[in-house]
Design brief:
8-stranded parallel sheet, alpha/beta, 285 residues, single chain, 14% strand
Amino acid sequence: MPASSPPSARGRARLLARPGRTGSGTAPALVCPLVLAQAAEIEALPAGQFLTDATKLANGLRALHGAFGNDVIVTAAADDLAACSLAAAAAGAAGAGTAAGHPRVAAAVEATRRLAVTAEDAALAAAVCGPARLAVQLGRSPDDQATLEECGAVLLALAKAFLEAGANLLLLVEDEPVPAAAASGWRSAVTPLVNMARFRQAAAAVVLADPADAALAPRGAVVCLPPEVAAPGQGIALSPDPAAWPASALRPAGVPLVTSLGPVQGGFAECRAAVGMLTAAVAGV
């Protein structure tokens, strides 16, 4: 009998969403560096205009996926999107309370909805900053329980919008260590996001800069850590600087997911070469 074909990227994301499958199986790792802004070069638009136009965003991200050849289209890249959503709500923008009051949020969610139909060969990922990072972006202390609760509520609304639009993978990114005093509040804020993703049959990943924070990750989430400290079965969290990506350190045989600790820096050509190297390293095992 002929060998069965490997599961698609969306199929592999669904496998990650199943209980007990976050670090097992023989499917290759999902390659999901947080590349998004580079697609503005394809559409020849300033980033601000590109990120608020759902049609340009969807078309540019589809073209970026074709040029880079990796598994996942990223429609939100763990930048300041959540802070924008909160600012729109505070300003009483139309649509506030639905997480889509800011034009960037509305465009990203709508692009996700369109790509869920038109880019069936790719998994769709929405990456948002974690509650501690969001608190810092807002100029507030991540140690404060009330702040973490507020940040968690904002992120939950944002995640719900992306998951309802068709995202297959939700990533929560903390690019700095979670303060020890915030551990309990942080976990309480993150757990509902992971549970919502799994309820929607999407995979959830917690992307962390500090390996000590892995113990805080809710059950069922893929834990991604820097390659030098990641344990077998954990995902890889690369530097946002593609020049620092160590292909030899990926150990992709036991890695379910490869992503980055924030939006990938650099222009289209630089990132295309780096993502190509990354994809080849994973596929070459």
